[in-house]
Amino acid sequence: MRLFLAQSLWSDFQKSFLDKDRWLMYLDGLKMTLLLALVGTVVGIILGLLVALIKYSYSTRKKNKPWLTLLNWLANLYTTVIRGTPVVVQLLILFSLSFMPNGVLASFIGFGVNSGAYVAEVFRSGINSIDMGQMEAGRSLGLSSRATMRYIILPQAIKNILPALFNEFIALVKETSVAGYIAVNDLTKVADRIKGITFVNLPLYIVALMYLCIVYLLTLIQKRIEVRYSRSDRN
Amino acid sequence: MIEIKQLCKSYGKLRVLNQISEGIERGEKVAVIGPSGSGKSTFLRCLNLLEKPDSGEIWFNGKNITAADVDTDQVRQHMGMVFQHFNLFPHLTIRQNITLAPVKLKKQSQAEADEQATQLLARIGLTDKADTYPNMLSGGQKQRVAIIRALAMNPEVMLFDEPTSALDPEMIGEVLDLIREVADSGMTMVIVTHEMKFAREVASRVLFMDEGKIKEQNDPARLFDSPQNQRLQEFLSKVL
After folding, report:
1. With respect to CATH, is domain B2-18+25-38+71-216+233-239 assigned 3.40.50.300?
2. What number is the ipTM of this complex?
C-alpha cells in the first residue's frame, strides 16, 4: 500500500514537474510573480510617498491654496476607492481598458496603484512618528519645509517604516496570485495550467511550497534588517 | 535690531501674548523670566516666526518680517535658535548636524563647512565626537552641539528657549559657560530661562512676563533687588 502511494506520487511528480521540462514553466512563473511584487512595491512606494506628502502638507497648514486642497481631495478619493474595492476587480477594470496592451502592464499598474494606497498610510504614520522638534530645528536653521522634509524628516521616517514596507512586499508576493485573472503567467496561473494539462493536483502543492519558501526567506531577511536597526538605535 | 509692535497670539480662547511691544538693540543680552504659562516661550518663538502671530508686527533689521510677502526661511538664516530638548538630528553625525544647513543653503562648500565645524567643535572640546551620532553624547554635550550648530550659520541674533531646563543638574554649568562665552563675543541674545543667577550675571536687561504681558523690565540688578510689580515680587520670592 505504502509502495503504491509512493509510486503514484512519483508519477504525479514526473507528470507535473519533470516531463517536457515543465519545471521551466514554474521558473518562469516564479520570475513573473517576483517581478510583479517588485514592480508593485516600487510603484506603490512612489505613489504612497506622494500621497502621504500631499496629506501631510495639507494637514500642517492652516490656510491652504486651492490646488493643494484639490490634491488632498484627490488623494483621499484615491485611498478610499482603492482600499474599498477588491484588487481583482481593479485588475479586471484596468485590463478591460481598450488602450491596455497586455495583462502584464495592467498588473504592474494595478498592483502598484493598489499597494500605493496602503503604503501611503505607512508613510503618513512614519512621518507623524518623528518629533515635531525635528521639523522646528530644521526650519529654525533657515531650511525650507521641503528641504527639512527631505534631509531630516524622511530619512528618519523611512528608517522607522522599513519593516512595514518590507511587509508590504511580502504581502504583495502572495497577492499577485490573482494576476492569472487577466492572463498573466504568474506562479499560480502556471500551476493551474499544468494541472489542466496533466489532470493531477500536485502542481498546486508545489507552488504552495514555493510561495511558502519565498515568504519564509523574505521574513528571515526582514528580521535581520530589524535587528541591525535596533542595534544602531541603542545608546 | 528687533522691533516688536502690539504682538498678539491666542490658542483658541487662551490669550498667550497680549499686545506686546518691545525693542531689542544690537549687542543686547535680554533674559526673559516669568512663571510657566506666562507666554515667554511663545514670545521667543514668535521672533523667528516658528509661531505665527495673530496680529501685530515684528521688524528685524528695518524689515517687517510679519508681512505676507517675506521669505521666512531667509529671515531665519539670520536668527539662531536653541531648544529645550536640543533637537539634534539623530540620523546624522555631529559634524553633519553642524554642516547640513550651511551646505544645503549654499552658504559654504562642504569643505569650508567641515573646517568650520572642526573649529567650533574644538571650541567646546568635542573634536573627538565629530563622527559619532547624537545618541552617544550626554545631555550637556548635546545642547552644546546644538548651540554651535546654530552658530555655524553665523546668525545675527541667538534665541535660547529654556536651554538648561531638560538637563541633569551637573550638566547645566557647562552649557551656561558656553552661552556666557557666546554672550561675551558680542552676540545679540534673547534667553528664556529659569536660571535666575545666570540671568542676573549675563543679561544686560531682564523682562518679566506674566499673563501674556511684559509686566516689568529693568537691568538685572534693579529688577532682582528692588522689584516693583507685585507679581514679580511673588515670583522672585518663590524662585530665589
Report:
1. yes
2. 0.92
